[in-house]
Amino acid sequence: MTPAAEASANTADFDAIIIGAGMSGLYQLLRLRELGLSVRVLEAGTEVGGTWYWNRYPGARFDSESYSYGYSFSKELLVEWSWSEHFSPQPETLRYLNHVADRFDLRRDIEFGARVKTAAWDEAARRWTVTLENGRRLTGRFLITAIGALSAPTLPRIPGRESFRGESHHTAEWPKEEVRFEGKRVAVIGTGASGVQTIQEVAKTAGHLTVFQRTPNWCAPLHNDKIGEAEMQAIRARYDEIFARCAETFACFLHTPDPRKTFEVSDAEREAVFEKLYAERGFGIWVGNFSDILTDKRANAAISDFVARKIRARVKDPAVAEKLIPKNHGFGTRRVPLETRYYEVYNQPNVELVDLTETPIERITETGIRTSARDHAFDMIIYATGFDALTGAFDRIDIRGSGGRSLKQHWSGGAATFLGFQSAGFPNLLMLLGPHTALGNIPRSIEYCVDWVTGLIGFMQARGLSRAEAPVTSVEDWMRTVRESSAGLLANEVSSWFTGVNTNVEGKGSRILARYSGSAPAFRQRADEVAAQGYRELDLG
Ligand code: NAP
Predict the structure, then answer these.
(1) Which tens digits make up the pLDDT trace of 409-437?
(2) Could you give all domains of the chain from N- to C-terminal order, each with its CATH number?
(3) Which of 172, 227, 415, 420 could form a disulfide with 411 if both were Cys (CB 3.0 to 4.6 A apart)?
(4) Which residues line ligand 1 (CB under 6 A)?
(5) What does pTM read for this prediction?
């Protein structure tokens, strides 16, 4: 056999290849099986779980209520599963996803330890050829990315990082073995949602913890609690209502915005609303607040001032409190980390805050971290430095569409998609949680996107169609909506992953239109229309 013929004989062929066995990939596999398709899921990890497999850092847990976060597609699953806390810790969520994989017999179609390196569209064969890092090749009619929006971890570009002789871990690449902090001098770099959860946990046992903060974030209390059996029974009885509520709200959380504007009420009433939200569970203070806090500067200043007062009241040292209060962005214009006694951590004698705006990191040394002020010695450095969000996981695979066009290059000035599902020039590439899809409470978005993709493939199957591509006109049309829905948001003026900024990634230093900021119901309405009209906004053949 010629090498080419040999390669082709060894190439397994499927109707669909799914990259990733997290929440999206698992559900997509299940739905495509129902259509009778042959499916192979390729998973880089050694287990199912995606985000909940990789992010096993101390203190990792949901920020959305557990019972609004689980899958809703199976009544049996809802009935048999019990959440033990209002915001489930990572080990429990990972157990849940393993349970789902077992219950629906999903593992037999999943290949673990299979990291995808390249994917190339073959127009003549109307198939994707996927190559794994181990050199194996597979082909598939459809290539479905279930690779997550926050799954490409990034490390800071600080000189000397490799020279550190102690332990170091990124929160999203946390080891499976237990990591202990007792008696150790630990550094955490980063104070986003991952950093905040890590810091409040590590501070409990570390000999000494030093937090390196570049930009403080506005954090609000999570108010987690255990769920007893009786309460779980009551939650089960309300599942229809819970998911109906999630389907109605802007970002699929259980909290609905107060229709009033911040200054429509008296000062006393406004303060009472803020107090009530601060005392309630979850994201209410962010997404259930007065309707103008994310668009009106004065309204935003009012809630920012309220949260600043809370921080001052909770942190004993006024100088430390001031450092923890964001000065360059208002409340909610970046993702609000939810916390449990986070601010009180800074009252502990074993915890120190280093403000990198005053004393920047100059380098990492063999023994620790050198700032412009001094050397700090550490046994462990924890990088809670985030992700190359939204497009990073795509960029890490060499994806080639029609005529060998590179997706990474195609998106180098910012991604352009049709509903987040497709990009022009990449036939039969279907993206779950692709850029410009509605995000919010992620599993709610996942279930919708998987159902939509399944609907499209079922439609094509029924008509003997084998090729789907979003034309440029459809992409432009959706990108107009994305632009319009983002108009007036204060978040546009702030650097964060919401605006596509990651200073640790070449070329991602300036703000772009990185995500869809309209409502989830509006997104679904648009995507439903596309389906109802026979997907005529796609080129099908
Ligand atoms: P992140 O929000 O992007 O935070 C990264 C942190 O690292 C920021 O404080 C950033 O500072 C800092 N940083 C990055 N590079 C640095 C450098 N070179 N020097 C100093 N500091 C540096 O990332 P994340 O905390 O991993 O969270 C990302 C998203 O994941 C969240 O917004 C959320 O959507 C999701 N998440 C969810 C949960 C949950 O649901 N429970 C938990 C964790 C994460 P700057 O702000 O100055 O850039």
Answers:
(1) 999 999 999 999 999 999 999 999 999 99
(2) 3-48+106-152+389-482+519-540 (3.50.50.60), 161-383 (no CATH)
(3) 415
(4) 61-63, 150, 156, 158, 189-195, 197, 214-215, 335, 356, 384-387, 497, 504
(5) 0.97
